[in-house]
Specification:
Helix content: 10-25%
Number of helices: 4
Low-confidence stretches: none
Mean pLDDT: 90
Shape: globular
Structural class: alpha+beta
Distance between the termini: 23 Å
Number of strands: 11
Length: 213
């Protein structure tokens, strides 16, 4: 596999921004009820994704899950980008400007059927940032290099059956500090497809599901 170092280059950023803008212009539908930030970053010169482990203080089905910073849209939020940036500030103490945002991936339904908009942004060098996670929301912050996520030995999938028949397949990412699964794994997969369309083979398969960005 080729090196992953160029995935956050200026050329890659321009290509991704153009693809996200084109997909967004073609997208129609209701506004998402929630948003997450998909935080690209560089760790000691290696392109990576930043994840959080949700605090067990939150309770409920999502406590202790691997996730991206995010949450429900606030009435004061102008759009999904505003929601993702606000939630990142509240969860990680990180103030990001709109210029860090590359664009928005296709919204996905969560377990309750509400649409969640993934907003892709580049934090830059992680060593230059001061993260102050809110302990009521975030138990841990960790990163996974894009090269790790792109290796087949770190990729898995789960087949689901409904009424005795094959229904859908979802990805899972393995061999890191925590298993990445669920909606976070689907968003991770979409991000890898965006960044490295020639290197990542989609694990998700939903009957009658669109494959657009």
């Amino acid at each position: 596999m080729a090196e992953a170092g160029g995935l956050l280059s200026g050329g890659s950023e321009r290509r991704c921004r153009e693809r996200l803008a084109a997909a967004g212009a073609a997208r129609r539908g209701a506004a998402a009820a929630a948003a997450v930030l998909v935080p690209l970053c560089s760790v000691r010169g290696r392109p990576a994704l930043l994840f959080t482990l949700r605090s067990r203080r939150l309770g409920g089905p999502h406590s202790g899950d691997v996730s991206f910073p995010g949450g429900k849209r606030d009435p004061a939020d102008t759009d999904a980008v505003a929601t993702a940036l606000r939630e990142t500030r509240e969860e990680l103490g990180l103030e990001l400007g709109a210029e860090t945002v590359w664009g928005q991936l296709r919204p996905l339904p969560d377990r309750q059927g509400q649409l969640v908009a993934p907003v892709v942004a580049n934090l830059g060098l992680l060593e230059n940032l001061t993260l102050t996670p809110n302990p009521d929301e975030v138990e841990e912050i960790f990163t996974l290099p894009l090269a790790h996520l792109l290796r087949e030995e770190n990729q898995g999938y789960t087949h689901f059956r409904t009424a005795g028949r094959y229904s859908y397949t979802l990805p899972v990412f393995l061999n890191g500090p925590h298993r990445v699964w669920g909606l976070t794994a689907i968003v991770t997969e979409m991000t890898l497809e965006l960044l490295a369309p020639d290197r990542y083979r989609r694990k998700t398969h939903m009957l009658s599901r669109s494959r657009s960005v």
